[in-house]
Amino acid sequence: MTSSRSYTIAVLPGDGIGLEVMPPALRCLEAAAKRFGFNLEFRHFPWASCTYYHEHATMLPKDWKKDLQACDAIFFGAVGDPATVPDHISLWGSLLLFRREFDQYINLRPCRLMPGVTSPLANREGKPIDFITVRENTEGEYSSIGGRIFEGTDRETVIQNTVFTRIGVDRVVRYAFELARSRPAKRLTSATKSNGISITMPYWDERVEAIAKEYPDVKVEKYHIDILCAHFVQRPHTFDVVVGSNLFGDILSDLGPACTGTIGIAPSANLNPTAKRDDPNQEWLPSLFEPVHGSAPDIAGKGIANPVGMIWAGQMMLEHLGEKEAASAMLLAIENVLKEAKNAHDRGESNILTPDMHGNGTTEELGGEIEMEIGR
Amino acid sequence: MTSSRSYTIAVLPGDGIGLEVMPPALRCLEAAAKRFGFNLEFRHFPWASCTYYHEHATMLPKDWKKDLQACDAIFFGAVGDPATVPDHISLWGSLLLFRREFDQYINLRPCRLMPGVTSPLANREGKPIDFITVRENTEGEYSSIGGRIFEGTDRETVIQNTVFTRIGVDRVVRYAFELARSRPAKRLTSATKSNGISITMPYWDERVEAIAKEYPDVKVEKYHIDILCAHFVQRPHTFDVVVGSNLFGDILSDLGPACTGTIGIAPSANLNPTAKRDDPNQEWLPSLFEPVHGSAPDIAGKGIANPVGMIWAGQMMLEHLGEKEAASAMLLAIENVLKEAKNAHDRGESNILTPDMHGNGTTEELGGEIEMEIGR
Ligand SMILES: CC(C)[C@H](C(=O)O)[C@@H](O)C(=O)O
Ligand SMILES: CC(C)[C@H](C(=O)O)[C@@H](O)C(=O)O
């Protein structure tokens, strides 16, 4: 089977376990491409990493933007080595910069109790957990404007602005409503804190209420972030689509996966859903796909990092590129392998799950098994 | 036994279930006072409630400050009726106003897996969970400064300032270090998000690091709020003292109790630990004690609200007033009653736990049992 469907992918493994989970994830993507008849061209870049920074005193080469804009999507491992490079250099010099420069204003993170994964929550097994957080990804609490005054004195005062714009809030809220509408449960939960954060958060609530009028078929509820976090623990199975600001989305999309078992398997899609390639009237702004987990210096180099987050991020990338069939097959393969490994575990046999999932497998073993399953 | 130890308590039941949990809590305090030989004078005030607001178009009478400053402590139920009064009136006109006016800069919230309470976390029972959150309670994300520009247009922009002051940060961090030093584990966890919130949060980290030098005996760790929330679910039994900003402390002190079972039992002490009554050189600024839960309009009027949060808040108040023995006895009484009720439940007998704890008792029954146990 030959095909004209072909995609160029920027591959940025980054640091730490990013370097370890990338190869098996690329092999999984290759397997999907082969089976479903499309081509993937991987362009490997060593930059956007602290290793690169140590050699070049900068996270990115001069032409980074051109390099990435020559690709259909960015496949990103994990960046950061806080022991040697400050976060404001490593993160604001790569991941957070990309999100803003490419206006990846939607951060999507599915949260699902996968077969074979044991949730730390009692009495939840059997009950499906399957929701998705939609995080604003460019403004809000991550504005990076503000400063210090009276430094080093008793009057020292430090201010940072949270910035919500009409355009920024409306587009993420509308995206969340559309997503909720497309799902069977049609339920949207909005994270707020308008009772305490009395200027920006009431504005967020107002925009949610205004846009809700366009979606009478979607059930909307709003919760203050404190009690919403509590409800994630108490009733995770009742959520469908959850929308929040940059900070609240960040918190909820780590807490959700913690409630469903392991953060090692959660993926993250940083989307600019309106950008179009080859449209002469707009600049091409590619989307970025990454695992939720970070570079994890504590386990880097041991070969035991969980590759599922990275593979699942690849699955979201194929979905975004329009390869729906291949994306479905990849998700099914992940589920089948996790289920089978769990069964082996329950039979008292050794299994290929990585240690974070209480198995004794390696990154390569678990990744290789999923690759094989995709090819089947 | 007669005594010269006598305390005047401002009693503000507020709204909703605040009105229901207050009477049993006051009877518990009376029982403790009787047994340990001190006097409590309760001054009941109907204001700081939406009921009062509906009649007077204001949350507080003119002399509210004088009335409260004539007391040794404030015992506060819960305020709010979002269906009829906006939060910025009800909350910023009472609770949040008191915190700021009386400079109650420490918000202490113990989080403990109580005997008889079933945690929603699997495999945690048996392992003790016993930590305490120290929340900055006057500044930070709750600054209430900022505003809107270009209203109603596509350029609409809304800004709110997060304000950290040297004085504000240092005093809460130092308080947390002192508290950690006084506890057997001597461990302090600082909540941050300096990788994303790039101006105020690195400042928070800097102050924690600077003050840590004064406490070489305390083990300090810092975690970004996203992963810290995940760790609350994954390993709540490993925390000791957790310190955070106004917002982060708010989130963690709801999430913690969610992990230990029920938010209905968590108490909250809003402290000005340096204020001294009868010191001619300073204004008297009383501290405030409240349950973590809110006015809960959905279950108000049914008589089934859990009174333990309010009673436990009373326990913290006695501790603060210096009645350590009475405070210990109250905590023990709460534990004994919960344990006994759980045993009854496990024997298949009906029990007096309120419905949020899966029992079939009422506010009055559970509160009455604790009152009797205190008197024993
Ligand atoms: C009611 C609300 C403003 C308040 C807060 O956020 O401080 C509450 O959640 C709390 O934790 O006491
Ligand atoms: C690394 C950090 C800045 C980042 C964020 O807060 O956005 C991460 O936690 C995430 O969720 O992608």
TrEMBL record, chains A, B:
Give all residue intervals belonging to the Isopropylmalate dehydrogenase-like domain.
Answer: 8-370
Please tell me which top-level EC class this enzyme sits in.
oxidoreductase
The cross-references to Gene3D superfamilies, in alphabetical order and at most eight, read: Isopropylmalate Dehydrogenase (3.40.718.10)
What EC number is given for this enzyme?
Answer: 1.1.1.83
Q: Which InterPro entries match?
A: ICDH/IPMDH (IPR050501), IsoCit/isopropylmalate_DH_CS (IPR019818), IsoPropMal-DH-like_dom (IPR024084), TTC_DH (IPR011829)
One molecular function GO term is: NAD binding
Q: Which PROSITE patterns match?
A: IDH_IMDH
**What's in the keyword line of the UniProt record?**
Magnesium, Manganese, Metal-binding, NAD, Oxidoreductase
What reaction(s) does this enzyme catalyze? (R)-malate + NAD(+) = pyruvate + CO2 + NADH
| The protein's required cofactors | Mn(2+); Mg(2+)
Q: Which domain of life is it from?
A: Eukaryota
Membership in a protein family? Belongs to the isocitrate and isopropylmalate dehydrogenases family.
Report what the protein is called: D-malate dehydrogenase (decarboxylating)
